[in-house]
Amino acid sequence: MGTFTEVIGVGSSDRQRFEPVEALVDTGATYTMLPSSLLRDLGITPIETRTFILADGQSIQRDIGEAVVQIGDRALTTLVVFADDEAMPLLGAFTLEGFSLAPDPVRQQLVSVTALAVGILEVN
Fold first, then answer.
1. Distance, CA of 22 to CA of 67 (rounded, Å)
2. Per-residue pLDDT averaged across 88-94, rounded?
């Protein structure tokens, strides 16, 4: 599957300021990863620390927080990872699913998908 980038907006919690970020669309990443300095500059603070496994198998710990992300004309709150400032920003699966978006690798763009609401049916 080919990779591509998407320009997203990352906003302050009051949604008054958004900064554009070119992020690699990465469904292999659970969460969206953004430069720590950008998140802190927008007033986003860590809420906890989690352990992550990198592609090379290395285990690291990173802070996570809640940020407003804008894709197209929609803005939603999502979990984000405070990444090293030199790391490539990633648009992860959690955010994509929250927006009901999926990557189209052929056209290298995000497309709308229908969200699933699967549950146990009531049995009488």
1. 16
2. 96
